[in-house]
Structure formats: structure tokens, C-alpha cells
Fold these 4 entries.
Entry 1:
Amino acid sequence: MSDAFELNVELREDTGKGASRRLRRLSGQVPAILYGGDKPPQPLSVVRKDLEKALENEAFYSHVLTLQVDGGAQKAILKDLQRHPAKDRVLHADFLRVSDNVAIKISVPIHFINEDTAPGVKLEGGIVQHAVTEIEIQCLPGDMPEYIEADLGALNIGDNIHLSDLTFPAGVESTALSVGDEQDLMVASVIAPRAVAAEESSEEAPSADDAPAASDGDAGEEDSEG
């Protein structure tokens, strides 16, 4: 992990929905909260432009952050983010305290590599479908990766890869796989182009000439209903 992220935050005493609205509207700050560990939750505020600039870096979401608060530094991860439903604006941020020797659960993005060179894409004209784009992992904070790679370079049309096909760094495990093999979810697949799939489907469908002829009894019954 080459990047280091540090945010200056302030303790916030005025809480509640009304106070949060005033904070966002009048001071250019975003309400936040820091929780977890053996300390009570701390309401915070962070300068909006500082937070939004940090959020432009994908690594910010999967890094241990340093929050400068009340004259001290606190290690934390970004646990949740609330955005405005219509505007690209952050409304609230949740930070979770972390300790170097306590494992955490966090979702990290999946980076798909070698999609264009996969035989199913390059030679057969297939299309890659991503079933998931992030994965929840469990590890110590110091072992947390920025992302997990999914190599699609060997896939033909009809092939797919699952969680168990991914390579996890030392000390990192998938929380889904830790539950059992039944949680070995599909991550990505290569499917046939839509035009080809539609053509194959039409070839398999019975034509009008292949449809069974109606019996005399059926025909007579239809005539009588008319």
C-alpha cells in the first residue's frame, strides 16, 4: 500500500438531522461519525472539499486512514458513505476505528485483467459479464490490499471464474469462502454475442411446419364454437 491518506476532522457537539443540514449548508462541511473499538462513538465533521478530493482516489476506500482529531491521530477505515440521491454530493461518512492486531472486514474492488485477450473474447467475439465488482475480505489492517485481481485471460465462451479462482494475498481471505464452498459465488463469465445467442435460440425453436396437426375432433370442436 503505497498511498497514505490523512484527514483533518473536528469533534461535533451539535447533532441531529437539523444540525447536520445546517452544517452542510452553512459551513461547507460534512457530518461524520467515528465508532468501534473500546471507545464510544464520536460525532465528527470534515471539510467537504477535502473529503471529496480524497474520494476521487479508489485506494481511499480500501486503505487505513489517519484521522487527525482533537489533537491526536486515530487509525480508521471508511465503512460507509451516504450520498445525495440526485446530486453527486456526500451527505455523511462513517469511519470505523481499527487496531493493528485486530482483523477487520472490508469490501475491496475487483480489478479484471486480460479481458481483451481472453480467447472467448478475442477469437470468438464473446462478451465479458461481471457478476460482482467488489468482494468482502477479512484481514489485519496492515495486510489490507487495495484490490483483488481477477484474471480472465484463459476464458472461452461459456467459461466463468468463481471466488475460489481468485488469488488472495497472504493474510487475506474471502469472508464468503470462509463460510463454506456453497458461497463460492461466480465473479465473471464470457457469454456469446447477443446476435449469435438469438440465432441459436431461433434454430432450436420448432417451425410452423413442425407443429403437430390438429385432430379432426379438435377442428370440429372449434367449428362448433364458431
Note: The CA atoms of residues 117 and 130 lie 16 Å apart.
Entry 2:
Amino acid sequence: MMALPANGGPSLGTDASSSRKFYTLTASLREVYDDNVNTTNVNPQSSWETILSPSILVDFPTADGDFSARYTFNATYYSNYGNNGGSSGGNSSIQLTHELVAQYMHSFSNRFNLSLAEQFRYYVEPSLFESTGTVYNNGAYVANTLNGTFGAQWTPLFGTTTTYANTIVRYDESAVADSQNDIENTGSETLSFAILPKISVVLGGIVDDLSYDDTSRGYTNYTGFAGVQWQPLPSLSVSAQGGLSYTEIDQGQPLISPYAALSINWMLGARSALSFSYSHDVVPTDEFDASGQIADRFTSNFRYDITTNLSAHLQGILTSSNVSQSFISSGSGISAYNEIDYAVDTGLTYHYNSYLNLDSGLIFSGVSSQLDYRDYTRDQVYLGVRGTY
């Protein structure tokens, strides 16, 4: 998906202590059973995984702004890492990953606001719920996203939102890097006109440019849209947009396609929350013979507090893609194809107290493609404990 900021940037978590302090320390230990650690349909390898994740969050509020940052270190022991990363089947492996997230928000006045966010990730696992990376286990990679949002309410009825995002992806393994290393720049401008107290009309445009370092694939996509923002309740907001996209494709013919986006955010009382989004757009693909794809993407996140000590979550994403011949490199040997990839994470959290939580859940993911070599299913079961101070 295009690397536009989501809700002003990555979430940084909260402080579990009753007294305010500038830091929060978190550590988690999780045990996972994974039935397809290498995300393949050929001789899938199962593995037990032990994951240790210490993290530190710092937060420095000011009178007219806030800076926060979080660093997370992950050490994962795989009892059987299969054939990935040059290992032979049955070999154990320890993989180390890092994540740094930083966010700065500043209010120049009650009408002008700026938000900047930075996310650096050195990962091994696929980015199932992220907008960068891949749904495949292709070895370690760096994904760095820098984005910014400037909001201005010029008059009581007219406002603008300007966004920019830069995403860079780099893989360690040269064979993967040759086809997957890329850089994406995305900018957007939205004009908002209030026509009723709870309804605004929006007009805007998006420019999204994707290019790869060592292969001639990618695209530049220009989108114009119109839509409406509606807040029927203080706890419910709805946004819908529709328009057209003009896409210039590397080694392909220009393409005109429809654009659509829908988002719903609903606080269902004091104990639950639901968010849902849908988009129909031109987005990147990790198929090395294609420059991009037209995708229908559905995402949802539901949280429900069953009791004061027990909560449940359900997070899901499904992408249905159409890769037309316009996106496929000439001489690649493949034809237009359709593909569906998905991921679902559901589970329970027991809050022993404000400092200690117990987690359990299931993660289902996979790809169903008309290109048989891209198919796989992967199921994971996890149980863990997390402490926060």
C-alpha cells in the first residue's frame, strides 16, 4: 500500500504506572509454534520459536507539542529454521531484529498542526500487517519510513491536509535485493469544506512514485479524488472517497483505473473499539516480474474488554490483487493473474495488574495465487507474558 501516514504515525504505546515519568520499560517472552516458518508450499518446515523482546519508550511533552520514541530489540530462537538464509533443514537459528519508532507533534496554534514520524525496522519475519516489505520470508531486510502531516484550518469552514512519506526497503541477501530493493515517495493534498456541522466535502490528489534499485520495474501513479467525511456521533467517524488514477508503468503502457477508499472508526462504548478500512488502488507487489498491481484491500481491527482483567482482539487484512498484462515485464514468461493474500491475528490478554499481562492467540496467513509457486499457508499459535514498568 502507499506509504501514507496512518493516524499521524506509528503508535508508541502508553505508560502503565500511575505516576507520570518520561520513560516506560517493557519486556515480553513469547513461545510460538509455527507450521511453515519459510512460507513455502514445497516441504514446509515447522518450528518452535522463543521470542524475547525488551523495549524502552521515552516521552517528552511540552506546552505546545510532544516528542516520543520507542526502541524494541527482538531475539528469536528457531528450533528448525529450514532452508531459509542458507541453513539446511533441521538446523536451529537465532535471529536478531530491531525497531525504532519516533514521533514529534507540534501545535503552532489551535488551527495549525504538524506531525512527523520515523520508523526504522530491521526484520526477518514478513510484514503481514505493515505497508512495506513482503508477505514472504525472504531473509533479513531494512524498512525505513519517514512521513509528515501538516494540518491547517484556514477558516471555520475550510481546511487543508498535506502529507509526504518516504519509504526505503533493503534486503541483506543479494539474490533478493536484486529484485526487491526499492524506494517509494508519496505526497498528497486534501481540501476540506464543511457544509453541515457533522459533514465535510473533500477534494484532493495523490502522487505515488515507486522505483527499484537494480531492476526496471515500478510506476508513477497520479490520483484525483472527491469524497465526504461524516461524524454522526462523537464516537463514530466515516470517510469515503472516489476518483481516478493515471499510472505510468515502467516497461508498460499507461493505465487509467478507478480509485476508492473507505474508513470507519467506532468506539463501541467504554469497552470496545472497531476500525475498518477499504481501498481500491495501484500498489506495489513483491512478484519480481511485475511493476505493481491493482488491489482491493480490506483491513479491520477489533478490541473488546470482556472484563476488567480480560480482553480480546481480532486484527485482519485481506488483499485481492489483479495483475494485468500492463504491469508484467515483457519477456517474463508469465501472463496476467489474480492473487489473494491474508493475515488474521486473534487472541486473549489477561491483565494480571497494570504491570503484568499474559497473552495467547493464533495467527493465520497465506497466499492463494494463480501463479502456483507463490501459494502457501502458515499457521502460528503463541503464548507469552509481558511486563511493563
Note: Helices lie at 174-180.
Entry 3:
Amino acid sequence: MPRLVLQAVTSGLTLGSVYAIVALGFVVIYQATRVLNFAHGEIVMLGAMIGLILHTGAGLPYWPTFVVVLMLVALVGMLIERVAYRPLMGSPLSTVIMATAAVGQIIRSVVRLLRAEELSFFPPMFSMQPLVLGPVVVTPLNIGITLIAVMLVIGFAALFYYTTLGTAMRGTSQNQVAAWLVGISVPRMFSMIWGISAALGAAAGLLIAPLVLVRPDMGVIAMKAFVGAVLGGFNSLAGAIVGSLLLGVLENLIGVFISNAFKDVIVFGILILVLLVRPSGLLGKPELQRV
């Protein structure tokens, strides 16, 4: 039994690390604009789709494909900000959120128009030959996905906390008026934030693609990442990471010891419970609103 638990936890960390990248994409936009980007799942799917076309269709090697996809999807994120967010600044938040949901549906519909409901296998970037490491069995693919996810999280944290751009982004997130007064271009920062968020989503799509079939509806993974961000704290980058890792592990444990059929029921039940008991999440801070 302990060995089975350890195996489930190890596999769950791989899944949770991908959730963490997607969750960061949600949180960084929310902290800057207080908007939930409901096109983020389609961004994840778009990253996998473009990667599939470039890697298996055009024959581009995996790592150049990774870089090109991040750049292209970052531009898509910046376009979404320009079309669906910036013209609606000052509108009710519900209006902006609905606009992002509409953009997500447009992206999904365009992909369906081009590829119908085709299911595609994305070639793994590492070997899938099982390796026995003590009490657990892993594959180089699982290890590689986890390590790349960790490096992306570390890279994003370094950008956000230790660079001039990151300082400007944090300043814009905390106080837009003050950012204007010190010479920061708020629209430019918003564009950068949406682009970085989209790049994170695309990276998650590329990482998860070898583990699932690439399809127009694969963006539903973003809903799990959203739950992870809420669990850890939607106003905390560290909380989003911790919550996503916990969710990945919990999801695997449920699948092993209860049933795969109940995973979604329990996961979204946890979301409701967290919202009822501790809306700020495990590491988040309560937000005061003026009335």
C-alpha cells in the first residue's frame, strides 16, 4: 500500500506541474486586471495544435518547435488583450469575462473547422521506457515533463521578481494609476502580461500533449488548473503552484484508491468546499473590497 501511494504521488506531481504552468497563466492576468481569462483553455489547446502541425506535419525538431510555438501563441495572447480586453476597459468585469469566453469559443470553432474532431497523437520528446527508481516506476517522459515545468516556473518567477520588466508588471498589477505616474505604459504592460500568460498556456499544451490525444476539446485541462489556483490562492503565485501540485497528487490518489469515474466529481466538489470555507485559498490573502 505505501508503495502504491508513493507511485500515485509521483505520477500526480507530473500532472500537477503542468497544472501549475496553466494556473500561473490564469493568476498573472487576474492579478493585473482582475479578469478571469476563460479563453486560457483554448490557448493551451492551440499550443498543442500548432506544435503538432510544426513538429509532425512540417518536420521541425521538437525544441525549435517549442520556442516557435511559445512565440506565436504569445502573439495570440497579445491580440486577445488588444481585441477583447482593452476596448472593454472600464466595462463591468462580467462583460470582459464573457468577451474572453467568446474568444475561446471562436478559437475552438476555428480549430474544429480546420481539423474537425480529429484526434492526434503527439510524439513524446523523451523515452517512455519505464525506469525503476527505488519503490516507484517512472519514465524519462514523466521526469522530463516535470523538470521542464519546474524550469518554466523558476524562469517565470525570476522574470516577475528580479527583472525591470517584472517590476513594471508587478507595479501595474498593484496600482495602475501609480504605474502611469512613474512612466510605466500600462497598456504595454497589459499586452506583455497577456502574452506571457498565453506562452505559459502554450508550454503546458506542448508538455501535456504526449500524455493525451491532441483534440479541439483538450483545453478542459485549464479547468483543473483553475481549481488548483483557487485551492492554493488565486492572488498568490506561490499558492497557485502549491495548489496545482496538490490537485495533481489528489487526482491520482482518487483514481487509484476510489475510481477514475469520481475524479472530476471530487475535484470540483473540493472547489466548492474551498470557496465556502476559505475563498482566499491555502496561501492567498483575503481581498477587501470597497462598497
Note: The chain is about 70% helix and 0% strand.
Entry 4:
Amino acid sequence: MKVKVSVLGSTGYTGVELVRILKSHPKVDIIFLTSQSYVGKPFSEVYPHFYGLLDHICEEEKTEEIVEKSDCIFTALPHGHAMNIAKEAFEKDKVIIDLGADFRIKDPQIYEEWYKIEHTAKELLPYAVYGLPEVYRDKIKKSKIIANPGCYPTSIVLALYPLLKENLIEEENIIIDSKSGVSGAGRSLSLNTHFCEVNENIKAYNILNHRHVPEIEQELSNIAKKEIKISFTPHLIPINRGILSTIYGKLKKKASYEEILEIYKSFYKNERFIRILPKEILPNTKNVLGTNFCDIGFAIDKRTDRIIIVSVIDNLIKGASGQAVQNMNIIFGFEEDEGLKNVSFYP
């Protein structure tokens, strides 16, 4: 029997990636595709690369009907829009996987401080599980509300998880420099993402107030079992997709490259989407393009006792839609890589 799924917000960049992955998933039937901007239009008219492959019409967000007829609802919507849908889904015992931020932050006051809106589903926060499978797989299996992680946090938390878990890195000295492709800003028109503003240009943005900061700090603190504050600077770079995070940390004790490598390999030995690269290969975004992989590499500066970790993902796949499907696979007992087995295309 196939799982009946619906995608709310199907015509944004994360939404269309969800549709692409789910369309080829052998154990899924797509029921509803909703869109605020293209109601009544064929999905293949909005995205012609689906012409002849998908005949769904973009529909209004009829929450009650969607929840009633779906087994799993993906919400690829701006923050604030998943709360009422989650209430309905939870009441009907349906799975909701939210690709927005509404259930990522456990403290509603922190959410309201950073996102500047009221959280109207506070009662559901204890039931929501942060959907990073490599860290929370057992909890994900039992949950009906999944807070799909943000793209920057995914690249960062996966890179730091083994070191924090093993108490190898100083918690108060973590500096993170991340660079993202333009698709991370979404499909809506904005002066900052116009071609002439982005092409042949690299710029830092939202220094000190990027909304992923509390999410990153929450998850790193959970792993370390103590409060962690980070220095995080995101950058926009002139590529369509991909995130590269370079993370600087101070080692608590001297360790060789081989010792650290063994720790990473031990932590991720059974994880099909984490690739720990050898010393001679540093991660780059091209090698994960269009895939659900997270590639991690590192170097140790013996002169300063610093470790420099490089982590790359495709922000629309492992950083959003691919991870959402990975979570669905876990919940419904499918092979975790079902629908996600492709290799990056090159060049």
C-alpha cells in the first residue's frame, strides 16, 4: 500500500524539489499540491520540466480535506503558516513534516523573539521532534510532528556532533562561516537576489541576527548538555544551490588527524548519507549537487590546536526536501534512502 502525501506550498523551491523526489518515490501517491500564487494552474505550467510527467492542478489550501485524505502532509510554507495545519493533523493522527521553522525552536519565547510573530501552537511543541535523522532517528520513528531542520543548521550540527558528543572541542570558542547559493533565499522576488546584485559578488548578510542562530545553539547545546553560544556569519554566493560551512574550534586536548578521523567514521559508519572524506579530498558543493549527502572533511592546525571542519550539502535536498523525505521514510518504515538514491551529476 502506498502512502498518500500532500505538499502545501508546492511551487516554491523546496516545494518543487519535494514534488520531484516524491514523484519518483515508488511507495508514494501525491494527492494534493497547493499554491497561493498559482491556484487553478497545472503544476507543469508553473514548472514545465514536469510536462507530461505530472498532471496535478495547483489547489487552494483546503486544510480539512487535505488532512482527511492524506497520510503525510509536507508544509513548505513561510514561518507561521504550519501551526493551524499541524493542529488539525495532530487531532486526526496524521503525520506532518514541516519544512519551515514553526516547530524547530522548543522555547516559544525564543521563537517569537527571532521570528517576530506569536506562536499559536505552543501545546504541540512537546510532541514535535527535530528531524535530523543521524541524531534523533529513534524519536523520529515514533513522532507525528517533524520539525525539518534548517539548511545551515543541518550542515553545522552534523559536522560538530561527534566532537561535541566526545567532549573534544571547547564549547565557547566555535566560529562558523557558511556560504549558501541563491536558492536558499526562496523564489519570491527580492532586490538582494536579482541577477545583477548576486552575479560576480559575494556578501555577508544578517550578521548577528540570522534566524538559524537559536536553532543551531539549541541543537549544539542539547548534544553537549551545556549552553553553547556560537559566532555565525552567513554569506550569499553566486551559485544556484549548495551550502559550504567552515567551522573553527579549539581542541580540548591534542589529537592526531587519524584519531579524529576514527571518531567521525565510528559515529557515522552506518549513515548512508554522511560521507567522511579522506585527507586528500576536501568537501565541495559540486559533489553533493542534487543529492541527500552531507560530505565532511577536516584539518588540524597543530600550531594553534584548532580543528577546521568543512561540511557541504545541497541546501534544497539534505538541507530541506531530501531530509523531509528521509524523515517520512523512517516514520513509515521504508528503506531510508528510498527515492534518494541518486548520485550527483557532474560537471
Note: The chain has eleven helices and 13 strands.
